[in-house]
Every structure is written in C-alpha cells, then in structure tokens.
Design brief:
The complex is a heterodimer. By secondary structure, chain A is of the alpha/beta class. Chain A is 44% helix and 14% strand. Chain A folds into three domains: 39 residues, no CATH class; 162 residues, D-Maltodextrin-Binding Protein, domain 2 (3-Layer(aba) Sandwich), CATH 3.40.190.10; 154 residues, 3-Layer(aba) Sandwich (D-Maltodextrin-Binding Protein, domain 2). By secondary structure, chain B is mainly α. Chain B contains 15 helices and two strands. In chain B, a hairpin with a 4-residue loop joins β1 and β2. In chain B, α12 packs antiparallel against α15. Chain B is extended and about 85 Å long. The chains are: A alpha/beta, B mainly alpha.
C-alpha cells in the first residue's frame, strides 16, 4: 500500500498520463483500468550504485543490493569510482542535460551536501520508510531530503595495543610522543582530525569555524611527528604492514584490519572524536522509471532488515531504531547508541563543514606539505 | 575482341575506375593542398588541445561560490592571485621543479651508459638481455610499479627483512622525498634509454676509433667525440624526462605518503576534493606555462637543431 501511494506521489506526470489513460480505458473495459493501476514503471535491466570498495561494498551488497535484487529482479552494479571523482562527472552530466553515469550515489554527507547545494540531487522526501527513521537520517541545514543519511561513524584513535603496553591512549596528545615519530597516520585532507585537534590544542568547539588557531597549532605539532597521510584502504594496509602504531581513522578500517588478524584496537579519547554520517542520493536527469526504482533502492536500504546486515558488516550505527550492534561492538564507543555515548562525540553541521572545507583543506595541506 | 580483353586485364580496369573516382573526388588542381591534407590530423589534434586550453583558461577566471558550488559568472584573477601567493602552492611547485630536475640529471646519468652498452656491445645475447630489461617495465603500469616498491621497501619489505638478518632495525625507506625521486628515476629510465639509443646508433664507431688512433684515451674520446654527437639524444631524453616528471601524479601520491605532493596532486585536490575547478584550472594552466617555458629555455640555450630537426634544409 505504501509503495503504491509512494508511486502515485512520486510521479506526477505519470499520474496525469495515467488519469487520462484511465478515462479512455474506462470507456472500453473496467478490467483494463484495474490492470493499468496495478502497473509499476518499467524495470531497468540494472541500477548502478556508486560505492567504496573492500569491506564497504561487500557489506552494501550483502545487506541491501542482493536483497533488493531478490525482491525486484533488478540487478545492481556497484561502481567503485571514488566519491570525489564521480562528483564532477555527475555535475557535468546534469549541467549538460545528459543521463548521469550512476543511479545512486553512496556518499559522505559533506560531499553530498555540496551536490545538494548545487541542485543536482532529487528530492527523497516521499520515501515511505523515512517515517521509521531517527533524526540522524535527516541532513542538517538543508530543505527536505536531497540526501538520506543512512548511518553514522566515528573517527576514532586506532592503535596497536603492542605499542601501548600501559593501556589504551586516553588523549589525542599521545600522537605527539617522540617514540611515535613516523608511526602515526591521518587522512590526507585532515578530515576527522580538525575538531578533536581544536580541543587537544586548547581551543573550544564553539569557536568553530571562527577561531580554529588551536587546531592548526596542534596539527603543526603533529606534522613534526611525520605522519603518513592516506585514505581509507591505506589505514588498513598500514596497520597490516606494521607501518604505523596509531591513526585517526573511521572505526570500520581499524575493525577490518582486526578482522584480518592484526592486533588493532580503538578508542574515543577524552577530547572527543568526530561523528559524521554517510548517505545515499540520486542525481537528477534519470529517466522516470529508473528514478522510481532508484528511490525504491534507497527506500529498501532504510528497512530494518537491510540496515541490520549492511551495518553489521560496517560495524556502524544505523538510522532505524531497534538495530542490534554486532557482538564485538556492544558498548564500544565507536558504536554510539545512547545519549551518553553521543556526549563523547563531536558533531558539526554539514553546512559549516561544506562552507569551510576549502579553507580547512588549504590550511591542513599548507601545514603538511611544508 | 577476346584477345583485347586479355591484353587489358580486369585488375587494370579496376585501377582505372579507382583513378577516375579519385580524380572526380580530388581533381588535379587540388594537388597543392595535399600537404595540408596530410597535416590535417595533426592540426585537428592541436586544435582540440587549444580548444581544451581555452576552456580551462575560461574556468580559471571564475571562482567557486561555496553556497551553491557553482562557478561565478564574472571573470576575476582571484585564482591566479591565490595560486601565486599561497605558500602551499609555492612549496609544491618548488618541490616539483627541483624534483624533476634531479630526476632528469640522475636518469640521464644512468641511461647513457645503459644505452651506450646496448648499442655498442658485440654480444647479441647481452643486447637482447638489455632490451628485455628495458621493455619489461613498459608492460607494467606506473601504479603497479609503485606498489611493487611498497612491497620491496616497506617496513616489512624485502630490503628491511634483509637488513634484519644482519641485526639492523627496520628503516623507513618509503613515504619521503627520496622515495618519490627514486620511483620517478626508475619509471623514467626506459624512456631516456629509448630516446638516447637512436642518437648513439647514429654516431659512427669509426669516429671513436679515429680519436683513439690519434692518441685520445677513453675519457677524451667520450668527452670530445661521443658526448657532443649524442647531444640531440640527451636533449630529447632530458626534455621527455623533465616534462613527464614535472607533471607526474602517481609516484608522489603512492610513494610520498601524502606529504610529498607535486603540482599534479595539487591540481587533483582542487578538482576532486574541494570541487574548486577554477583554482584547479589555474594551477593546470600555470603548470603548462612552466613546462612550456622550460622547453623554450632548452631550445633557446641549445637550439631546436639539437633534436636533429632541420637537417633536411642544410
């Protein structure tokens, strides 16, 4: 019932066409009319979903894509183009009135917000399953649902317990210890580290973005420690290859290394850790029937069943109430479930992040490349 | 009639028809345009490149509006001001320029004896071995080669394992400037050898023999005969290595550990991380300008004739 209502609301043009056809059909046969109402838009041969590789795409496939295919018969192709690289392609396609290269973009909320501000995202407010989600699903600072956040994640301090025989590190300041020189890692754009660095540097979160000098000062000290700078897969590799002892990374990467038999643990230090979200969105310019099924895919990703399997794989908290944490993450600070858990985390709105990203990126790069 | 047909076979008739067709399509009075027709593919390629550069130049004069992530309608030089004043870009540009010069010098020093032995050796087996060693890396892409170095030079790599056998603690061999330069030299070596080999082949062996017979030792013969005559190859190889190193992306990205960016990495960041296509386009144009200036400088210092161009006119 929900889906049928959703269909009618979704596609105004089709609805009007259908109404006209209905009048015509009514003159001939009542049977024909009822059959016309029951019809769904034509199913495409496949939907293309952009995704991150490794355990990320495997989790999406196991939790959402396979069950969607089983339910609808529509094959899902995962496009592993980097989120940053697909973005200009989608923007160019929309600007030129071409059909975009993907149907659904699995994206960071910050990146997706840029696309929403540019006006290349479809509105997803009419997804029936949105009513069953927590407030985390709603993008902050944007009208409607140009993006649907699907889970949250924490940029933890991951470490090799062997390098910390006295127990888990309690502060980000541990990255400044001389013995860790050349043995630490951050993201190459500094993402995830700016906000805890602001606190570790003696600043206040409420000063973001106006005064982030404490963060830059702290990052400058970290630079003296010769950190490695990389992206998600690098952290897993570096832990596996024994290149690093500590890193600011998404807990999923540390958990992946742990699954591969590497002795890695993680913690949320006393200064806090950045909490952020990822989401799904649909670019404008798709044919009507493909848009309909792309929305159905995202709607399916918001079901408790799909969320449970998908996010068990990622080890991250979802946006549907009642999900059970994976056994190894019960009570883990990287899997916040209670208000108390969230108090230890730092959440800054995507709008502030998007507006200042370029400046923060330039400052971080200037320090690290100096 | 039958005999006449035999004397003028079918293939000739086909050729006549083709000639008639060609004459109809391209009359003799168009013959003066034939050289231009042959130049057409090159002109088309250059034309497309120029069109692309015009598009990039247009983008470089627009700034990003972070509230809509659209480029500004008005033209401004703000991106050029940023590119020329921000320390980040000065640092990256200096690193790229110095790095590409070092890589060029080291590569030429290594490539010259390799190419010389490959060309001059009387042993067919040795020549084949050198050729195989030269071409083998060509079948392996730059990224794969860089990852190969990660395996060999990593903390748990072959080199550190070997050092461990004699009691040496693991040494950080990767993720620094020397590692990037090392990777670039290894990548550029085959290009340089391939450019040098024809130039060395063109030097008659008899000239070296004559120099020897006149009393020149090996060093003098090399300095006064081989080296000057190899100049076209050295200049050509140097230009190729210099421009490829200056614009390289993969080696700094993979072997630099994120802190040894070259200009190409900075351009990537602007296009794909901050979505600032205007600044990215500005950096790209400045890179083209610097590369062109360097090539122009080489031609000014040594003349285009050093690449053996214009010989036919003499």
């Amino acid at each position: 019932m929900n889906e049928r209502m959703f269909f009618a609301a979704l596609n105004r043009r089709r609805f009007l066409q259908g109404t006209a056809a209905l009048g015509a059909a009514g003159a001939f046969s009542t049977l024909g009319l009822s059959r016309a109402l029951a019809q769904e838009p034509e199913k495409p041969g496949e939907l293309i979903v952009r995704a991150w590789g490794g355990s990320w795409v495997e989790s999406l496939k196991a939790g959402v894509s396979d069950s969607f295919t089983a339910k609808t018969g529509i094959a899902i192709r995962h496009d592993l183009t980097e989120d940053n690289e697909i973005q200009p392609k989608v923007w160019a396609a929309v600007a030129q009135g071409r059909v975009p290269p993907i149907h659904i973009n699995w994206d960071t909320t910050t990146n997706a917000t840029k696309s929403a501000l540019r006006g290349v995202t479809e509105d997803l407010s009419d997804l029936p399953n949105l009513k069953n989600t927590t407030e985390l699903a709603k993008p902050v600072g944007l009208d409607g649902y140009p993006i649907v956040n699907t889970y949250g994640y924490v940029y933890v301090l991951a470490y090799r317990p062997e390098a910390f025989p006295d127990g888990p590190p309690t502060s980000w300041k541990v990255l400044l210890e001389p013995r860790l020189k050349g043995r630490i890692a951050l993201y190459n754009d500094g993402i995830g580290f700016h906000f805890p660095a602001q606190v570790a540097g003696g600043g206040k979160l409420k000063d973001i973005p106006g005064n982030m000098q404490p963060a830059w000062d702290f990052i400058a000290k970290v630079k003296e420690q010769q950190p490695l700078l990389g992206e998600d897969p690098d952290f897993t590799t570096w832990f596996q290859k024994g290149e690093i002892d500590a890193a600011c990374t998404i807990s999923t990467n540390a958990r992946e290394a742990k699954k591969n038999g590497i002795d890695v643990a993680w913690t949320v230090p006393e200064e806090g850790a950045k909490f952020d979200t990822d989401g799904l969105w649909i670019p404008k310019g798709l044919p009507e029937n493909e848009l309909y099924w792309a929305k159905q895919y995202i709607n399916h990703a918001l079901t408790p069943e799909a969320q449970q399997v998908w996010l068990d794989g990622l080890g991250l908290p979802g946006v549907v109430p009642g999900l059970k944490p994976p056994a190894d993450l019960v009570g883990d600070p990287s899997y916040p479930t209670t208000e108390e858990d969230f108090k230890k985390l730092i959440r800054i709105s995507s709008k502030v992040q998007v507006e200042n990203e370029s400046d923060w990126f330039a400052r971080f790069k200037a320090i690290m490349q100096g | 009639m039958r005999a006449s047909r035999t004397a003028y076979p079918l293939t000739w008739r086909v050729m006549d028809a083709l000639e008639a067709f060609a004459a109809a399509v391209w009359p003799a009075r168009f013959d003066r345009a034939v050289p231009w027709l042959m130049l057409a593919p090159a002109l088309l390629l250059v034309g497309l490149l120029v069109l692309g550069l015009i598009q990039i130049a247009d983008t470089s004069l627009r700034t990003l509006d972070p509230s809509t992530f659209l480029m500004s309608e008005d033209y401004t030089l703000a991106n050029y001001h940023r590119a020329l004043t921000e320390t980040l870009f000065a640092t990256v540009a200096t690193r790229s320029l110095i790095g590409s010069l070092i890589v060029t010098v080291v590569t030429l020093i290594l490539a010259f004896p390799y190419a010389y032995v490959m060309v001059r050796t009387p042993s067919a087996l040795l020549r084949k071995l050198l050729l195989i060693a030269l071409f083998l890396p060509f079948f392996i892409g730059q990224v794969v080669r860089a990852y190969g170095w990660l395996i060999i030079l990593g903390n748990q790599g072959m080199v550190n394992e070997a050092l461990g056998l004699i009691g040496v603690e693991p040494v950080r061999l990767l993720y620094n400037y020397p590692a990037v330069l090392f990777g670039l030299v290894q990548y550029m070596l085959p290009f340089a050898v391939l450019m040098l080999a024809p130039a060395l082949t063109a030097i008659p062996e008899e000239l070296e023999a004559a120099a020897g017979s006149l009393g020149a030792d090996w060093v003098r013969s090399f300095a006064y005969v081989v080296l000057p005559l190899a100049r076209p190859g050295l200049i050509g190889a140097g230009l190729v290595v210099l421009t490829l190193s200056l614009t390289d992306f993969a080696m700094p990205a993979i072997l630099g550990g994120g802190s040894q960016d070259f200009i190409a990495n900075a351009i990537y960041d602007q296009f794909f991380r901050t979505s600032d296509q205007g600044l990215g386009a500005t950096l790209a144009l400045l890179l083209v300008a610097v590369g062109s200036l360097l090539v122009g400088l080489v031609f000014t210092l040594f003349g285009a004739g050093t690449l053996a161009m214009g010989r036919a006119r003499r």
